[in-house]
Amino acid sequence: MGVCVRVIGDITMLPTRIQRIASEMMLKTRHNTRLFLNICMAYGGQNELTDAAERIRLGVRDKVIHPSDVNPDLLSQCLYTGHSRPLDLFIRSSGEVRLSDFLVWQAAHSGVVHKFVESYWPNFSLWDLLGAILHYQLTLLQMSRLNPSSPYQATASSSGSARRGGVGDKHRTLRIRRFLSQLDRSHWADLEKRSLSFQAPSNTEPRITQRSVGDSLLS
Where is this region: Disordered (predicted)? Predict the structure, then answer.
């Protein structure tokens, strides 16, 4: 029940107070499953790929996984969006026909529908959203006519079996599961640490009262 909130990005770049609030919010809602809300803050697609590659490098260095275990599916699971569903509709506002380093890996999938709208984000209305959804539905209908098996459904269903040891390599599957579980534990432990490290100052702490220029002249 409830909404699971995920702050996607490098939160270490945010002010300490925002880091604490974001960490507490993710920890308190981590077990909610009704809806998922992803908030991108301090996010960049290149940084996301770099961080994912670094996690994999450390996993290989520590012999948790083998170099042969590395493939696109493993990289996808090491991204900030590793626990999210595959991207289906990408909406870009302001009339720009570019991704601007946003979800560059996720948006490269052949089943992702891109919709570029002229409205600027502050003016993005319900009608713009409905138009994007209609565009998505019509595009899927057209793709299904050209190819009975939707690219989105085909990849979403095959990536888990073909890339996660579907050839009978049980040891490889176990290695990857252990590696991903290790990443999860490290992630939540880091959030716990941030939520406790950046506590607001106590009300009992002495306060320094700044006097005005007039007060200083009269004293």
Answer: 200-219
